[in-house]
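Comment thread on ticket #2218

A.B. wrote:
> Attaching the input chain for the structure job we discussed in standup.
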Amino acid sequence: MNTTPLEKHIAYVFKQKNLLKQALTHRSYGTPNNERLEFLGDSVVNCVTAQLLYVRFPAPTEGVLSRLRANLVCQQSLFEIAEQIHLGQYLMMGDGEFKTGGRQRPSTLADALESLFGAILLDGGFDQANQVITRLYAEKIAAINPEIPDKDAKTLLQEYLQSRHLPLPDYTLIQTSGQAHEQIFHIDCIIPALSLRTHGQAANRRAAEQAAAAIAWQTISLQRPSKPPKPRLNTT
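C.D. wrote:
> Ran it. Output below, let me know if you need it in another format.
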């Protein structure tokens, strides 16, 4: 596989090509795969984005900075960056994974990007990983306005119901589907006081709850006279 275009996209050339190969190897393909590198990459991307936010925004509190960082390192943000560098086309995976759309799956691409960051850390050290992550995140960092509220759907729902002295939603696990290593969680968001029940599904329980809450919030929004804030879908 010719990975030169990928290295051009990230502006980094690997000295140890075996590390790049491992970062691009999904567990369905065999071993060594990118799971351990993903663990390492998750740590380094959290560290780098925390530093970027700390330097760029000197005023916000720790809580605000934590929220901003969570938005940057969530599955959706990682997936968007992975798509920008066309990471999916370089992934090696088993036939079953490939045939079911593995190369376009947000969770797979997000994990692979973290693995790539981990591989760069091992290959070139922290400074090189820092430079790559900083370049890839430059557009997202520049677009941040910490003064604009950015609350997820569950928070918006909770605040709305509390302001009206109504009971909070009940998030009920309806079922799980799929293989053990790639389960899909099906969650219902139930608000009896509003006679409302919505359904969400995702690769983890928290994300499924957020998906169900987002639909509930959108339903409530249609019944409100003024346009409410758009919820952030936190998928981590």
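A.B. wrote:
> Thanks. Noting for the ticket: The chain is about 55% helix and 10% strand.
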